[in-house]
Amino acid sequence: MHLIKKLTAAIAAMTFSSLALAASAAGNPLSVHVLNLQDGLPSSNVVVTLEKLNSDGWSLLNTASTNEQGRITALFPRDAKFDAGTYRVTFKTGKWFAEHQQKSFFPEIPVIFTADGSVPHYHVPLLLSPYGYSTYRGN
Asked: Under a CB-based contact definition with an 8 Å cutoff, are residues 73 and 38 in contact?
């Protein structure tokens, strides 16, 4: 019976955590997630920058680091207006691999995407390994 109580509490905590994460992400138009494919674990403390393409080139909007779950749930600046346009999310992977005493082929991974305003939230996941990566439009 004690095990059932522990499992129930763990499931409740995970559900609450998922709901809190969804609520946080819903209020911000952009989130990212980094997962290390070598061990299947989230990559915490990956520095990520966000830029927007303007007529003068790229302008920096925000810099943040992934949390223990490998996520940044609110990458877009809170006080800024999220306009349709071209954005660049850059994952500073070389620094992260160096901190984990691993070699890597990619010192950083830029992901350029167009936000057309058709959805209220954009999610950019990164599946990471030292010599390859994959990304896609998440939700």
From this structure: no
